[in-house]
Amino acid sequence: MRKWGQHFLRSPETSVRIVEAAAIQAGDCVLEIGPGHGELTRHYAGRAAEAFLLEIDPILVQRLSCRWSAQKGRVKIIEGDARKFDFKTLAFSKPPVVLGNLPYYASKPILSKLLDWGGFDRAVIMLQLELCQRLLAQAGSSNYSALSVLFQLRASGGRMAMILEPEAFQPSPKVKSALICFSPNKSAAGFDCLEKILRAAFFSRRKKLINSLAKSLPDFDKKNLAEIISSVGISPEARPQDVSPKSYVELGRRFFGRGVV
């Protein structure tokens, strides 16, 4: 395994299925994160209007540059770390489709970076199955967390397109992977205050929501908290995992004003 920790797809058929899930059409722009050896790239490069390939490994950058040198006007290779890269610097002619087979250790910061940017049309990204389940978990489920709330508010149309066994990769990881598809929520903004609410709520997820908030928000006594929680339509007996993303937004607005999202 190379030092960056990425697992490469073994089967061309799997690569084709991933590109098909992205539904790339003639004239589309593509941003591929972690292209590796170009397992996905070769299945869409012929029809994309332009593609930016962002790769952290300098050896693979060199190989990709050689492989796509004949199409350097349309296929551009960039060496960089997606966790730190400023996606706004990429001059796309239209919002791109984002493709990625992300290293597990870097998945969450890269997802956050992409959603902070929000300048893409849709994303089709391979992640650890457990992370996908957490991102898409609904209120009331054991996987539901602050991460679920934030992702579902910042992204729209989230769904799991396929699940892959460890044997689909070289080297084989110890866990299953899944392909997640989503688009950015263009209307979402201003999550600082909401994150404060979520940190307070989920710090002790087994406690009642009102008790968790009372411990972390000392400016509000329990009577005030109970009134605010009830006004949003949340039961006083509710625990953090019982509250929907929409209700958390309303809580944030009641606590910190209309500018939460």
Alpha-carbon distance between the termini?
Answer: 42 Å
Shape by Cα distribution: elongated
Structural class comes to alpha/beta
Read across the widest sheet, the strand sequence of neighbours is: 4-3-2-5-6-9-7
* Secondary structure: number of strands: 9
Indicate how many domains the architecture comprises: 2
Query: What is the CATH C-level name of the largest domain?
Result: Alpha Beta
Give the topology string: H per helix, E per strand. EHEEHEEHEHHEEEHHHH
Helix content: 25-40%
Level-2 CATH architecture of the largest domain: 3-Layer(aba) Sandwich
- The CATH superfamily of the largest domain turns out to be Vaccinia Virus protein VP39
Count, helices: 9
Major sheet summary line: 7 strands, mixed
Q: How much is the average pLDDT?
A: 90
Any chance you could write out the topology, listing elements then pairs?
Elements: E1 8-9, H1 12-22, E2 29-33, E3 50-55, H2 58-67, E4 75-79, E5 97-101, H3 107-117, E6 122-128, H4 129-136, H5 146-154, E7 155-164, E8 169-170, E9 177-184, H6 192-202, H7 209-216, H8 222-231, H9 245-256
Parallel strand pairs: 2-3, 2-5, 3-4, 5-6
Antiparallel strand pairs: 1-8, 6-9, 7-9
Helix pairs in contact: 6-7, 6-9, 7-8
Short overview:
This protein has 261 residues and is α/β, with parallel strands linked by helices. The protein has helices at residues 12-22, 58-67, 107-117, 129-136, 146-154, 192-202, 209-216, 222-231, 245-256; strands spanning 8-9, 29-33, 50-55, 75-79, 97-101, 122-128, 155-164, 169-170, 177-184.
